Write the C-alpha cells for this entry.
Amino acid sequence: MVTKQKLFLLIIVFLLLSPTMFNLLGSMNLALTQPLWLTLTIIIISFFLLTKNPPPKQIYMLDFACYKPPAAQAITKQGAVAQARVFNKLYKEETLAFMRNTIERSGLGDSTYLPEAFLKDLPDPDMEAARAEAEMAIFGAVGELLAKTKVKSRDIGIVVVTCCLFCAAPSLSSVIVNRYKMKEGVVSYNLSGMGCTAGLIAINLAKQLLQVHHDSYALVVSTENITENCYKGNDRSKILVNCLFRVGGAAILLSNRPSDSRSSKYQLLHTIPTHTASFDRCYNCIVSEEDTEGHAGVTITKDLLAAAITAIESNITSLAPLVLPASEQARYLLNHVARRLPVANAKPYVPDFKKSFDHFLPHVGGKPVLDELQRSLRLTKTDMEASRMTLFRFGNTSSSSVWYELAYVEAKGRIKRGDRVWQMAFGSGFKCCSVVWRAIRTVDDAVMNPWSDEIDGFPVDLNNNAPFPYFFEPSKST
C-alpha cells in the first residue's frame, strides 16, 4: 500500500533525478548548490524515517455509556439472601448465613441489580436467560452511546467485547455486528476469561488496532454475565462471587480521526498492562472449577489480596516514570538508594500521585482491596469516593465498573478541562491495567448518565449500614 508519505518521497526522488533538475543545478552557483542538496537530502531522510517509523496516532474517547437496569431488577441486601434461598434449595443454612455476613460487610447498598431470571418465583437461569441478560446490558449501553455521539454504526471499523464467563456462539461481538448491521469489513474481537481487568485491557487492544487502521472508530463493550454463572454449591470459597457481582455493562467509543480531537471528551495518554501469572500464588488465587459435588464456580482463595497488591505494585512501578513529576521521581530514587545502605533506617517512600492525577478510579473489586489502596497510596476519603459509591450503588459489575466510576465523577461536575484521570482494574490471572486520560473539555452536562437522577443523594454514609436479619421468608417486597 502506497501511503501519502511514500508517494511524496517518490515525487522528490523523481524530480531530483530528472534531466531538468540536473541542468538547473549545473547552471547554479556552487555556493548555492551545496546548501540546496543538503536541504533536499535532509528532506529525503526525514520522510524515509517517518515512513518507516511513523509517530503514534492520537487516540480520543468521544464518549461512553453505562447500562442502568430497570427498577424491577433492583434488590436489597436482605432480598438477595432471601432470593438465594428460593433460587437454590441445595444451599445449607450455614451457607446462607455466610452469604448474609459477607454481603453485610461487602460495601454494597440496597439497590443493586440481579438478572431477571433470578427474581422469578421459579428461577430459570438457562442459556436463553443468559443471552437475554447479555443483550439487555450490551444493547442498552451501545444504543445509548450511539445516540450520544451521533456516530453511525456502519462507520465503526473495530469492535472489541469483553465478558469473562459467558461464551456464546455466535460470539457477543457478532451479536453486536448483527444487531447494528455493521459493515462486512469490521474488525471484531471477543475477549473471555480475562476477569475484571478485561475492560481496560480492551482499551489497550483497541489503541493498538487504531494505530494500524486509519480514520477509524473503535467500539469497546464490557459486561459480565451472572445468569449462567451463579454457584449452586456450599463451598465458601466460591460463594463470594454470588455475594458481590451484579448486573452492568458499558460501551466506549474511541477514534483516531484528527477531526475528533475537539469534539471528544478525553484523549488517551497511557495504557499500562501488567501480568503476574508467572507466580503460582497469583495465578491460582481466582480459578473457575467444580467443587467435590460437581457444582461449577469461581474459587477465590485467601491469597487474593496479596496477589492484587503484587500486581498493583508492579503496574504502578511501570506507570510512575511516565506520569510523576521529576521532583517525585527524584525523592523515590533517593529513598530507594538510602534504604540499600546498611546504616539507613528509612521507610519506603510512596510517591504522591495526586501531583499527577486529578481523579483516581480503581476497580471496585471489594472493600478490603479499596481499603488497602487508600492506605498504601495515602489517598483521602474524597479520592476514593467514586469507587466506594459505585460499589454501594451498583455492586461489582466486573470489567465495566471503572466506567460507572467515571460516570459518577462526571455527574458530580468534577471533570474540568485538562484534568487527568487514572483508571485501574485488576483481576484473575493475576492482571492489573492502568489507563490514563486527559479531559479535552469540561464535562458540565451529565446527559444519559446512570447517576443523573440520584446524584444529589451521594455520597452516602457507609458507616450507617445496619445489620439485617437472615432468618426470614422471602416476599415480593424484597
